[in-house]
Amino acid sequence: MMSLQAAYLQAIQAAYPDLSIHNSCLHNKDGQYNDILIVNDEIIFRFPRYPEGVQSIQNEIRILSRIQNHTTLPVPNPVYTSTDTEKIGEVFMGYEKIPGEPLWRETLHSIEDDEHLQNLATQLAGFLKELHSIPVAIFGTDLLINDSREEWAALYAEFREHLFPFMRPDACDWVVNHFETYLDEPRLHAYKPSLRHGDFGPGNILYDRKNQVITGIIDFGFAGLGDSALDIAAAMSYGESFFARYIPAYPNIESTLERAHFYRGTYALYEALHGIKHGDKEAFESGIAAYI
């Protein structure tokens, strides 16, 4: 039986027979939704693991191909694509590797120089402001509007059905209050949709430790038109003191905070739900831990 790595290489060569492959390395434990194959030490290929990931990667390719040169920080440029099929193992996206390492919380919190921290915050806030300001007209009618009240109501129903049986009664009460307060407030659903990254966490922010700069933003698998507050919520993951440094570079950011706090309260639940749906025990246990 052909190995997963060999199957992926075969799919790449079938789509790009002129691409000379000298070496490859498979990373199939680093992400929840995609397997990563690094080819020739310089090209990143991403293969969806699940059927719903096929549409996601098609969407990602559309977005990335249209936002090139719209942001100061580099983003992946999908020069290798295979989307004519919907077969898992044959659908992929490939782009030249962006240098840098993830800016993990531990890395950021080890930085003591105030000017360095402010420069990083200014880079990240500037990127979000640029991304959220890209005219939605450049996408035509290719992208649906996400983050509607109806979507969150449906997700809330899934949490109740699949996760509540595992949760403490007081934890269930907290989730009920968290969601129903949000769902019942029309003011929180009156924002203007913009392009948002959708997964603006530390693992997708690349950092050059030597030169002390952000080198790029990756993984636009959850990107789409919707609520910019989703990205603001993710930006808060480094802590309040670092997030406060965003404000000079993104003056209107404070208007998103109420919605951002709601989104932050859904992260662990979403991880637990993913674990149940895809048989990922580690994701389920990690997500549900605070509620049992």
Characterize the quaternary organization of these chains.
single chain
| Global outline | globular
What number of structural domains do the residues give? Answer: 2
> Which structural class do you get from the secondary structure elements?
alpha+beta
CATH superfamily of the largest domain: Aminoglycoside phosphotransferase (APH), C-terminal lobe
Q: In which range does the helix fraction lie?
A: 40-55%
Strand content: 5-15%
Q: If you compute it from the alpha carbons, what radius of gyration comes out, rounded to the nearest whole angstrom? A: 20 Å
Count the DSSP helices: 11
In spatial order, strands of the major sheet run 1-2-3-5-4
Average pLDDT number: 95
Per CATH, the architecture of the largest domain is: Alpha-Beta Complex
Q: What is the CATH T-level topology of the largest domain? A: Aminoglycoside 3'-phosphotransferase, Chain: A, domain 2
